[in-house]
């Protein structure tokens, strides 16, 4: 038995959003009487952190603290339209819509504050802690809770805004094929170090080194976790997951439910290092690109290349099971050409 | 089999509820006692998101018939914090960002509590073994393992300090 070591590389570029019939998302924002800002969305946060990121976008644009922002994604029947959480589009599309809505709301907020302070709205700024103040004369200030009360009970205004982000459908130029199907593309490279046991065929992923260029990382902690959690899913695709391990010869031995569906546990994770490069995209919210689905992509070919580097077996069908590695090794010994 | 009254101590408080023969501990905790920390993931004992401590031992509460635990002590994630102050494991999960969607987190934390109660100085392998029944689909596990090791370290440091104070 020999443990063979190999290293493989793979790169990916990944589009943000899609190009079906146009790709819109809308957002509404309004201030409550207490001075909180409610963002209404139909976009879904299924755990990836969309609510956090759009709250950041709104807080930054309004000049208000994060604690003032309430994100409501309650109901797709009654909320502003969103195409959904897919195509790595959430941060880009919804973030842009929220920024647009927050800008409009900010203008009303400053106008209400200006009327209360009896100054020109153009001379006002936010301090980020909840106050609107006069530039150069910070003692003249008013808190958002007082601005909201004045808007509702004295001035009869709604501190609110609408955000309508639309990536229009792009048709290819027939002569050249040229088109603009996505808003921007994120890029990544993964380096995989693996160990292949030439007796059992078992592949162990030892280390993954990830580098991601994702525009601006609006929330670096969540972005890093998306990279590493996604890489874990890539490892899972690469060497574990299959509903039909013996297809098409036999369908009798596959898992019947998720409790039998093979995925790596905490003891089977590689060591990971991750680097995020920030090259802001001109059309992204504060420069962000999508970083959803791509994180599971690069690890798979990197692992395949590392297996090839380790033992000369070129695998093209996932998962890279012990059986497929051993069959590949047998073929090499028999002098068959490498596929 | 008729309804039974089940008496248990949950997070140190005496509780009683009615259990049908097919009432699981998880169902009783969530729907009769209003404790929503333990999550119903797979409902067949495979994912660990419903993990609670039963007389100190970690169990998947979705597979425990409530009627069989009369007189037992149950600990859930709700019982760990002291008011607004998180306990060591919870705080280490926050500090190490060992959560993304959060669905597995209560079960992970209770498995970690069970481990640290019997082994205050675990290795990474021992942590992996302790949470091997808990599935996470977001983080890739590494931050969770680090957080549990960090919680163990903080708890040992505190115990060491307390011992020094006592002998002074």
The secondary-structure element order of chain A is: EEEHEHEEEHEEEHEHH
Beta-strand content estimate of chain A: 15-25%
Please give the CATH class of the largest domain in chain B: Mainly Alpha
CATH architecture of the largest domain in chain A: 2-Layer Sandwich
Helix percentage of chain A: 25-40%
Question: What would you give as the CATH superfamily of the largest domain in chain A?
Answer: Aldehyde oxidase/xanthine dehydrogenase, molybdopterin binding domain
Q: How would the global form of chain A be characterised?
A: elongated
Number of strands of chain A: 11
How confident overall, as mean pLDDT of chain B? 95
Please state the structural category of chain A: alpha+beta
Helix and strand string of chain B, N-terminal first?
EEHEEEHHHH
CATH topology of the largest domain in chain A: Aldehyde Oxidoreductase, domain 4
Name the chain pair with the biggest interface and residue counts per chain: A-B, 23 and 28 residues
Compute the separation of the termini of chain A in Å.
Answer: 24 Å
Helix content of chain B: 25-40%
Tally of discrete structural domains of chain B: 2
Average of per-residue pLDDT values of chain A:
94
The level 1 CATH classification of the largest domain in chain A is Alpha Beta
Number of strands of chain B: 5
User: How many helices of chain B?
Assistant: 5
């Amino acid at each position: 038995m020999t443990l063979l070591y190999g290293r493989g590389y793979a790169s990916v570029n990944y589009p943000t959003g899609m190009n079906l019939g146009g790709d819109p998302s809308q957002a509404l924002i309004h201030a409550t009487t207490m001075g909180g800002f409610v963002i209404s969305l139909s976009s879904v946060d299924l755990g990836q952190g969309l609510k956090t990121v759009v709250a950041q976008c709104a807080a930054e644009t309004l000049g208000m603290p994060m604690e003032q922002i309430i994100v409501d994604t309650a109901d797709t029947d009654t909320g502003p339209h969103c195409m959904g959480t897919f195509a790595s589009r959430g941060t880009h599309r919804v973030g842009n819509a929220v920024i647009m809505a927050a800008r409009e709301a900010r203008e009303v907020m400053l106008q209400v504050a200006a009327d209360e302070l009896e100054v020109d709205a153009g001379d006002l700024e936010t301090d980020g802690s909840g106050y609107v103040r006069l530039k150069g004369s910070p003692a003249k200030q008013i808190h958002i809770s007082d601005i909201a009360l004045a808007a509702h009970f004295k001035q009869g205004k709604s501190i609110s805004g609408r955000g309508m982000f639309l990536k229009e459908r792009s048709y290819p130029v027939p002569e050249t094929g040229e088109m603009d199907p996505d808003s921007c593309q994120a890029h990544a490279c993964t380096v995989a170090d693996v160990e292949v046991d030439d007796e059992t065929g078992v592949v162990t992923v030892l280390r993954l080194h990830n580098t991601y260029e994702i525009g601006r990382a609006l929330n670096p902690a969540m972005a890093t976790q998306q990279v590493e959690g996604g890489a874990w899913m890539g490892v899972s695709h690469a060497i574990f997951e299959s509903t039909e391990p013996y297809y098409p010869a036999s369908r009798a031995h596959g898992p019947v439910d998720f409790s039998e569906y093979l995925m790596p546990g905490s003891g089977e994770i590689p060591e990971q290092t991750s680097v995020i490069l920030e090259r802001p995209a001109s059309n992204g919210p504060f420069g962000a690109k999508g970083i959803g689905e791509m994180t599971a992509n690069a690890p798979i070919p990197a692992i395949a290349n590392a297996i090839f580097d380790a033992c000369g077996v070129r695998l093209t069908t996932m998962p890279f099971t012990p059986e497929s590695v051993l069959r590949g090794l047998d073929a090499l010994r028999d002098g068959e050409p490498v596929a | 089999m008729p309804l039974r009254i089940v008496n248990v101590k949950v997070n140190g408080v005496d509780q009683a509820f009615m259990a049908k023969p097919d009432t699981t501990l998880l169902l009783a905790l969530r729907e009769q006692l209003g404790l929503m920390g333990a999550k119903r993931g797979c409902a067949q004992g495979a994912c660990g998101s419903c993990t609670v401590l039963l007389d100190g031992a970690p169990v998947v509460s979705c597979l425990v018939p409530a009627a069989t635990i009369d007189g037992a002590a149950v600990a859930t994630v709700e019982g760990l914090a002291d008011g607004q102050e998180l306990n060591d494991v919870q705080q280490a999960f926050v500090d190490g960002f060992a959560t993304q969607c959060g669905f597995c987190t209560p079960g992970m934390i209770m498995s970690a509590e069970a481990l640290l109660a019997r082994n205050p100085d675990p290795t990474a392998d021992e942590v992996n073994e302790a949470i091997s029944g808990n599935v996470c689909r977001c983080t890739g596990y590494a931050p969770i393992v680090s957080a549990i090791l960090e919680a163990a370290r903080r708890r040992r440091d505190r115990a060491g300090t307390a011992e020094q104070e006592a002998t002074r």
